Every structure is written in C-alpha cells, then in structure tokens.
Amino acid sequence: xxxxxxxxxxxxxxxxxxxxxxxxxxxxxxxxxxxxxxxxxxxxxxxxxxxxxxxxxxxxxxxxxxxxxxxxxxxxxxxxxxxxxxxxxxxxxxxxxxxxxxxxxxxxxxxxxxxxxxxxxxx
Length: 123
Fold this sequence. Notes:
Layout: H1 2-32, H2 34-40, H3 43-67, H4 72-90, H5 98-122
Helix pairs in contact: 1-2, 1-3, 1-5, 3-4, 3-5, 4-5
C-alpha cells in the first residue's frame, strides 16, 4: 500500500511541476514561436491540467489521510492550491492574475505532496 501512495505523490508532484513549467516557460517560448503562442493561450490546456490535477491530488491526499491522519494545514494547503489552479484556469478574477494564481497553486500542491512523501518516508 505504501508503494501506491508513493506513486500517487510522485505523479501529483510531476503534474504540479508540469503545470508550473507550462506557466513559466511557455510564455517565453510563445514570444519566440508564434505556433507555441497559440497552444500556450489555449483554454483547453488549462482545463486539462486542472482536470488531471484535481482527482490525482484528491485521491493521493485521501489515501494519505486514511493511512495516517493528515494535519488540517496540509489539507488546507492542498485545497487552496487546487482552488487557485481552478480560478487561474477559469481566468478569475482577471486574465492578469491567471499566471500568478496558477504558479502559487502549483507550488502549494507540489509542496503538500513533497511534505506528505517526506512524512510517509520518515514514519
């Protein structure tokens, strides 16, 4: 059971990293390559990342909580991270806030999964 939890955390960390890479690297590439600009601005990309991140994170944290009670702070950080990703994908409250919100959400999710993996390894 520990191995599957480790794989879930690793997958969630990788997805958060991909989301972060998308938010930080693609705008730079978009400035150089017009074709990449079309893909970087596609709304379906943001929706896809959220659609993948939400169930993976939810399942990983649910399993971790079931195995060893997670502190409220860890659950809150993951929930806030997911909400920031969702808000960023929806362009709320503004298009200008999309990237900072998504970056903060990705970092919160990734740090929660890293912390959980560290905690599980320690025990």
